[in-house]
Design goal:
The protein has 242 residues and is α/β, with parallel strands linked by helices. It has nine helices and six strands, in the order αβααβααβαβααββα. A six-stranded parallel β-sheet has the order 3-4-2-1-5-6, sandwiched between helices. Strand 3, helix 6 and strand 4 form a beta-alpha-beta unit.
């Protein structure tokens, strides 16, 4: 098996922004006769590995789908286990910060526990000066919810005569998304054998390249990431042009 260092081709174009739908944790656990919480724990551990590798190869932004607005519909036991995983991760962010990784959180904070929100805000503050990879953790995130919240904010500005309807354009909307000031993803990766976006970055990924695989997220390794990047390099991105 190739080492991590040998996977990196110095001539390859590394995407500025990679987004990942971390899918397949439950199925990974089921295959091993383990509770779903064990799969989420394995997925959380793998997220750290992939994030560090992205930082190593020069990716500037990594956005990962950690918990969607629809995930609240899962059994309470599973939701509680996921929230405790977030707490454990957030309490352990100092290691990421030491590695020059900045942490940001996108999503709707409504519904999240007060202590989790406080930990998120502390992590963002503590890592604010990092200049390496920026990790955007999508927690309680949904693309439709994000656009809905942006529309509400813009409508409020119009109502208060702070902007005119005629002045609203794509940039206006982007300025009110959770991802404000973050470039759109170049590459969206979805492991686990599913072939849909699942309400993830639906505005931002309008011209992203998608890469799908049957690999369950806890088994997704740096070599798989590099394969996705290699395939990305073979694509002709025309952005609607010729």
């Amino acid at each position: 098996m190739k080492s991590e260092n040998s996977l990196i081709d110095r001539n390859i174009n590394i995407p500025v922004h990679i987004a990942i739908i971390m899918d397949g944790n439950g199925r990974w656990a089921k295959k091993r006769a383990l509770p779903r919480s064990a799969g989420h724990a394995a997925g959380s551990k793998n997220f750290k590995t992939i994030a560090r590798y992205c930082n190593k190869i020069g990716v500037k932004y990594l956005t990962v789908y950690a918990f969607s607005t629809e995930n609240w519909n899962r059994p309470k036991e599973e939701v509680d286990a996921l929230m405790n995983l977030f707490r454990d991760y957030l309490k352990d962010t100092k290691k990421f910060i030491k590695e020059n990784i900045a942490l940001k959180f996108i999503g709707n904070k409504k519904g999240l526990a007060k202590d989790i929100i406080e930990l998120m805000e502390q992590a963002e503050y503590d890592s604010r000066n990092a200049t390496g990879l920026t990790v955007n953790l999508a927690i309680n995130y949904g693309g439709r919810d994000e656009i809905t919240e942006a529309v509400k904010e813009i409508a409020e500005l119009v109502k208060n005569n702070k902007i005119n309807i005629e002045d609203i354009n794509e940039q206006t909307i982007e300025n009110h998304l959770f991802t404000k000031n973050v470039p759109d993803p170049d590459l969206v990766i979805r492991p686990s054998g599913e072939y849909r976006s699942s309400n993830f970055l639906i505005w931002q990924s309008a011209y992203a390249e998608y890469w799908f695989s049957d690999i369950l997220w806890p088994d997704f390794k740096p070599r798989h990431l590099m394969k996705a990047i290699e395939d990305f390099n073979k694509r002709n991105r025309r952005f609607g042009g010729v």
